Amino acid sequence: MNMGTRRIKKDYVQNLISVIMPTYNRANLIVEALNSVMRQSYRPIEIQVVDDGSTDATSEVVRDWERKYSENNDLVLRYHYQENAGPSAARNKGLLQSQGEYIQFLDSDDLISPERLEILAGIFQQDPDVDFIHTGFDGFCADCGEVIETHYGKPDQDQLEVALKGRLWPNTLRSAFRRSLAAATGPWNEEMTCFEDYEYVVRAIGKAKKCVALREILASARRGGGMRVSDNLRTYQGRTFRIMCESALLEVIRERTDIPLYARQEFSSRLYGLGLRCNARGWSDLGKRCAKIAKKASAGGLDAKGQRRRLAYWLGKWGGLSYKFVGDLKYQLTASKSIINTDHVCSEKTKKNIEA
Known about the structure:
Layout: E1 13-23, H1 30-38, E2 45-51, H2 58-69, E3 75-81, H3 87-97, E4 100-105, E5 111-112, H4 116-126, E6 132-141, E7 147-151, H5 159-164, E8 175-178, H6 179-185, H7 196-207, E9 211-223, H8 229-233, H9 236-255, H10 261-280, H11 284-297, H12 304-314, H13 317-334
Parallel strand pairs: 1-2, 1-4, 2-3, 6-9
Antiparallel strand pairs: 4-8, 5-9, 6-7, 6-8
Helix pairs in contact: 1-2, 6-7, 7-9, 9-11, 10-11, 10-12, 10-13, 12-13
């Protein structure tokens, strides 16, 4: 497992926010992301752009933006080029180069609300124990700009318990970190090509002294032109990476003694369910990995749901197919209540200028 080898330096510039932006062939989009940082009501900010081997005009576009908009010490852009190694490697390089007391990751095709960094900095500065902040975000159609999904933060719930229940919807841009937490979390996993944000956030929450979740929508993710989370889960590699995230959660469970029994039981039950879905696809090796994690996490025993799922898991592929059928049926019955518009179709009427 490639987790990088270097740790970020502990020295920092007080109150500075480092926005770490990996990019690859985003010459046509990165200006929108950079502009969303420039429009922040907060200063000082540094933007660490790490170009992961782009072959288009990304370098020229970024340099041109830097000449136009860098504001001396209040808004500084630093551009770094590396041979193509993936977004996690680019984020790790950005972390190593960063100097900020607070860390915000932002992909080069996404946007943050103008007040986001001011709100985050205010929370960090008001309470020195807060080292992780999670906010709401929405997803907008890359073609027409229409919001097609909304994910609110859950301020009334413990964030680790949310993750154990499988209800944490991590996204690179919705989380912010105090530098000390980023150092304790360690580097991004450079082996993972999907779910790497989930794995990193899980490790961070496990190390955090105090987490704060905001319901407000303070960021926007561009949707379209790539695989969705559900698509990744349909592939063997994607399911493998998802199980790596669950392994990271298991390590958190092992390290923490303050996790309630019911949260551990729900995690174990969910892992047996994930194992059943793996079995249904004929991936018995992945199913065994899920069952192994579930067993290690359920030292205090399983709840009734977990016991039923464990029994179904023992039935092998047939148990998995039955479980998947029931789960898919429930999903279809509740699809109308979904916060994600899976049937979105662009029309000329809804198309608009996203940058405006």
